[in-house]
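Propose amino acids for all 381 sites.
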């Protein structure tokens, strides 16, 4: 076993681009950037594979990856498992042995365990799990080569998960991702908290998470890397998070306007045209607030026009389903990713208004790395 020394502790952290790799479950992440998992169909094998090819962690969304499969409406679980495995294989083929490949798994979906098990069977490097507390994730990954990483929004949640996994499975998370209130998609805060002018940003939450995990790092004699996401836009943001103790960052929205993103061109165009004020908070059928673009679909919902499912396959645990729900989030997300924005729900981060041009994954990664390195140098001068 690795001796628990100060040198080992520091070697497990990211101390600047090109200086140290982040060690995760026996693997080395060359570039400490996680591409956020975006569904439905926004981040699949092509995007994830290209991020990994650049040395980062590419993430495939586990939310209905089989939406294009011919039997999706009749046999959604079978279609999703088949497609998820295909997308993982596709990502690894593109990555050519570089970086890491993960899936983003929402606790709120039905068949959570079956889909996580399928990803583990396929040999995915990590499961990043949120939209609820992934209390059972350690059980699903224990004894495998797949790292387990909860998404949290507070030190309290991080401590609860560490304590639960320690007691029940004799292990701790391999890393954490903190998603702050400026993130896109489903958010781990109440609507009231999100609407406060004094709401915390992700770097405000970071110290309490670092403090919460410290006793478990000492007990297990290993570092738990902590990545921050939500409002992280460029390398300067990443450098600030690093100075505060983060091992790396998670960035989602910026990867949508890359050529390799798996969404349609029509979907990407929404992000190129949007302004800051177009990002609005909504209530999701999952039972959580979320941030999305104020599309015609959302405007009709606000007017009270319902959008029930054509066929309900009960994809979400908390959704009442059928005619009992005012709108079908799966249907709306699928229409959006295909480019039918009139009937589509488009999740986004708070920095959407800052994106003005298309790029490639390689160009974006190199840009962020350079900004990060430059900001690090400035801080030491």
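Proposal:
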């Amino acid at each position: 076993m690795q001796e628990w020394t100060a040198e080992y502790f520091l070697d497990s952290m990211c101390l600047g681009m090109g200086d140290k790799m982040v060690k995760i479950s026996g693997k080395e992440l060359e570039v400490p950037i996680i591409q956020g998992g975006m569904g439905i169909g926004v981040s699949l094998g092509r995007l994830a594979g290209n991020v990994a090819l650049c040395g980062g962690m590419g993430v495939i969304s586990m939310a209905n990856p089989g939406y294009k499969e011919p039997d999706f409406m009749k046999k959604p679980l079978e279609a999703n498992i088949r497609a998820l495995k295909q997308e993982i294989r596709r990502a690894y083929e593109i990555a050519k042995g570089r970086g890491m490949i993960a899936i983003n798994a929402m606790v709120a979906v039905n068949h959570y365990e079956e889909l996580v098990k399928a990803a583990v069977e396929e040999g995915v490097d990590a499961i990043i799990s949120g939209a609820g507390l992934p209390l059972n994730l350690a059980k699903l990954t224990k004894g495998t080569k797949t790292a387990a990483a909860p998404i949290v929004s507070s030190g309290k949640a991080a401590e609860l998960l560490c304590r639960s996994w320690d007691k029940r499975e004799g292990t701790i998370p391999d890393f954490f991702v903190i998603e702050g209130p400026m993130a896109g998609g489903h958010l781990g805060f109440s609507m009231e908290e999100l609407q406060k002018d004094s709401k915390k940003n992700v770097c405000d939450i970071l110290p309490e998470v670092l403090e919460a995990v410290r006793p478990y790092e000492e007990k297990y004699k290993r570092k738990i890397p902590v990545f921050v996401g939500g409002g992280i836009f460029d390398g300067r943001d990443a450098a600030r998070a690093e100075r505060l103790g983060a091992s790396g960052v998670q960035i989602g929205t910026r990867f949508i306007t890359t050529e390799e993103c798996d969404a349609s061109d029509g979907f990407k165009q929404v992000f190129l045209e949007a302004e800051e004020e177009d990002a609005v908070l909504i209530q999701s059928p999952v039972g959580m607030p979320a941030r999305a673009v104020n599309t015609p679909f959302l405007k009709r919902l606000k007017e009270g026009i319902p959008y029930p499912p054509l066929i309900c396959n009960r994809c979400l645990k908390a959704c009442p389903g059928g005619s009992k729900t005012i709108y079908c989030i799966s249907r709306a997300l699928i229409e959006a990713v295909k480019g039918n924005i009139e009937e589509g729900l488009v999740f986004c981060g708070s920095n959407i208004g800052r994106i003005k041009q298309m790029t490639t994954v390689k160009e974006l990664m190199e840009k962020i790395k350079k900004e990060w390195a430059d900001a690090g140098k400035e801080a030491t001068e």
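Residues 6-263+355-376 form a domain with the TIM Barrel fold (CATH 3.20.20.70). The radius of gyration is 19 Å.
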